[in-house]
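Tutorial, part two.
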Amino acid sequence: MDKHVYERWCNTLFLPAVHQRHRGAKSALIMDNASTHDVNLSSEDVKILFLPRNSTAVYQPMDAGVVASLKGRYKGRLLEILVRSLPVPLISPPASPQTDRPRTPSP
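Running the prediction step on this input gives:
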């Protein structure tokens, strides 16, 4: 990621999604101090807070749990959206009737 990708993500995806979901309520985005995040972006509804330098190692154990939880929820919601966007509802095929065929003895 670089500053341009971060700025584009923030302006075209993140901020519109926050505005749509929270409808004017105040929100905070907490980020590490990576050089790619050093873009001065602002919004009335979203305050961007940066962690102090060299503190990510201190927060790493908590970060791992939060990230794992977030990834799980994200994947679940993404799959739900994908399934809902399918053109045909997912219906399991009817069970095929089992035919009673005479068995031939194996040699």
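Residues 1-53 form one domain. In part three we will examine how such features are distributed along the chain.
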